[in-house]
Amino acid sequence: MIKIKKIILHLITQTLKTPFITSIGQVTDRESILVEVIDVDGYTGWGEVVAFSTPWYTEETISTSLHLLKDLLIPLTIKQNINHPDELQDIFKKIKRNNMAKASLEAAIWDLYAKRENKSLSETLGGTRKEIDCGVVIGISSTANMIEQINHYIQDGYKRFKIKISPKQDIKILDEIKSHFPNLPLMADANSSYTLKDSDRLKELDQFNLLMIEQPLGADDIIDHAKLQEKIETPICLDESIISHVDARQAIELGSCRVINIKPGRVGGLTESIKIHNLCQENKIPVWCGGMLETSISRAHNIALASLPNFTIPGDISSSSRYWDHDILYPEIKAEKGKMTVPTKEGIGFQINIKNIEKLRKAIMVFEAKDIM
Ligand SMILES: O=C(O)CCC(=O)C1=CC=C[C@@H](O)[C@@H]1C(=O)O
Ligand SMILES: [Mg+2]
């Protein structure tokens, strides 16, 4: 049984190697909150808040997550005797949404639990793969630069390539890329930049035989995606629309998508991610693990999750060096020939590089169980 002694929040900021631009926002300096949970037996688990500094992707931000953790989630959790991380869904049930804040604490407790069980996080979650295929996201830039990026990542061996599209940049860039790389396993992420009125334009994308188009319509929509999927051949993949296994069930029943991107932060944690994975497996809907421009702590959790059997499509789990000059784990998280080995060591299977965390840290907040009523 887990009895928590201390929870530490490490607030860090890193500058991305190159700004990450999408149809809805741009990230240059990436704030993160690293969540460290230490139990009375000295085991330590780590999680990460993957919300951004501003609410451009979901309604959550670093500030809202800090408030939820400090004022609600840590006080609710720190005195609990926890037999299994699944219990956190019940502990958190009084708190509506705020999934990324919840997921960060839940992930740390999953990591700690796996270490206490002396098992890898992958095995603890029900993983079956010993290695995972990795995909990579091409940043929005000039056509020439995007072609150059793709060439670079092909050399790295990545198995799937994702570009951002919007009504401002779609057909032309896809045509350019497909003419340079006719057989490239390519997908496009629209981040809700189209509406049902763009159905004819989205139908034109069928000519490119994309693996999928991710979240073409509204971030909270399931019904219009079902209408769109009836009109286009390209498989729709939902990201922002799916924040729980209930959303996933409704999307599957309505035919709103043929693929789902699972991000533990977006859906409230690893327990909910497994529920979505299992539901999709039962309904023959393949899933892949999305990314959030995160540090290697969340990336390590994603590797473990992506080792589950229905993660059959390479996810946004690229090398840490795709975005960062320094890794905060060792060994560094690195795709070799487009694959990553799933760690077999206990927990997330990587060591924390506390020196690099201290270099990036802007603030630290310590919560002792003994001090909380
Ligand atoms: O983490 C990565 O490598 C890619 C992240 C990524 O593509 C996204 C992160 C957050 C919001 C979006 O722009 C996009 C996505 O929707 O998947
Ligand atoms: Mg997306």
Automatic annotation (TrEMBL):
List each copy of the Mandelate racemase/muconate lactonizing enzyme C-terminal domain by range: 143-235
* Biological process, per Gene Ontology: menaquinone biosynthetic process
Identify the SMART domains for this entry: MR_MLE
Give the CDD domains listed for this entry.
NAAAR
Q: Which UniProt keywords apply?
A: Lyase, Magnesium, Menaquinone biosynthesis, Metal-binding
**Enzyme Commission number(s) from the entry:** 4.2.1.113
Which top-rank group of organisms is this from? Bacteria
**Which SUPFAM superfamilies does this entry report, sorted A to Z?**
Enolase C-terminal domain-like, Enolase N-terminal domain-like
Residues engaged in binding Mg(2+): 189, 214, 239
Q: Report the function annotation for this chain.
A: Converts 2-succinyl-6-hydroxy-2,4-cyclohexadiene-1-carboxylate (SHCHC) to 2-succinylbenzoate (OSB).
Q: Which HAMAP family match?
A: MenC_2
Tell me its family: Belongs to the mandelate racemase/muconate lactonizing enzyme family. MenC type 2 subfamily.
Protein known as: o-succinylbenzoate synthase
Q: Which organism is it from?
A: Metabacillus litoralis
The uppermost taxa in this organism's lineage are: Bacteria, Bacillati, Bacillota, Bacilli, Bacillales
Report the gene name.
menC
